[in-house]
Amino acid sequence: MIHILRQLYLGKRFYWALMGIVLIFFLSFWFYILYPFGLFLACMMGVFFIVDFTLLFGKKEGIKASRTLPEKFSNGDANGVILRILNQYSFEVGLFVLDEIPDQFQKRDFGFSTQLFSRKEVEEVYALTPNQRGVYQFGNLHLFAQSPIGLVVRRFSFDKNQTVKVYPSFLQMRKYEFLAFTALKREFGLKKQKRIGQSREFEQIKPYVLGDDLRHLNWKAVAKTGKLMTNHFQEEKSQPVYSIIDLGRVMKMPFNGLSLLDYAINSSLVFSNIALKNGDKAGLATFSDQIGPNCEATHRPTQLRLVMELLYGIQTGFPESDFGKLYSWSRKKLGQKSLLMIYTNFEHVGAMRRQLPFLKALSKHHVVLVIFFENHILEEFAETPASTLSEIVEKTIASKFLFDKRLIAKELQRNGIQTILTKPQDLTIQTINKYLEIKEKGFI
Description:
The protein is an alpha/beta fold and 444 residues long. Helices cover 37% and strands 28% of the residues. Strands 18-17-14-19-20-21 form a six-stranded mixed β-sheet, with helices on both faces.
């Protein structure tokens, strides 16, 4: 009995009908002729209530439902959740579906209404867009069913406690994956350029053929065989490329629900995939006041999964980042010239100039690409018209901050450091294009 009472709810029609009957009884105090009519309606309502109750509670499992989640969620993207609902009643039911979605979304009234014919199964899909990585816990799935009479509502609850992990945006990774193919690069504004110099690695020794470069004659092989032998080389493709993410407090700043760190993480995953598709070695490093999780650049088949798992677990802290520690790590760990894509953020020129000696030292041994962010909200604010003196002052300060960002980019470039100054939402495509441009120019 208690189990039935827990499932029993009263529909909106019940309350409307009850209000109508109460109003008739109230008016019958002055118009007695309405009293029998009100009494008749009250009896009919009781009869319909019993019939409606019998229809809904006469079958033990009138409604069946299940929730299907993807293996993992993609951070910052819309992820589909599938609900399958089966109506086992012999009549059409109206349903209100209430799903207990994870606490991270901060929604307690997430639901929708639908109609379901007798003996029919329906598949409903809704989308969730997470804004932070981690484990998300789903609660119960509740369905509130009512018959065509609509006086009684029965709740069906399914204990579908499920968890799903939110990983860096692998949907973006798949979206931009086609950029790895050389034939499509020109569609994104990249022109084929003559390579400056050549990066070549030894392939094999072959007999000399007319037309071979005489500079590649292998005199030791000639002495052993008595024949002209030449060294043959192939263009070296497997260059180390590292995504280096600043985990300091400057990366905590939020934009459109995601922190700068999450934008950098999503971009790093996409970039690592593109680099591996291009035959390069992809690696990862993180730093703040200490060197954080990192992995050596390789092109193993499992490398992308390793990068994703490392990106899944990293978080920002509050210390100021130490680029000197990054330089020391690179000198110890990176023996070969590499492309270092450093995701960080500089809000003023002074902050950049404190780190400039370390960036210049890095650029002597590697190709350094510094990626930092425009404040597009500040830019929109600076472009709106000002009408008062205080607004003029605020917009002047905002313009000064924006000017400093451009000044930082120019000063880095003047010191031989590749630079990307981009809006957070454009980070991924800007990073890919810059990487492909560096590859085309033969810097690595």
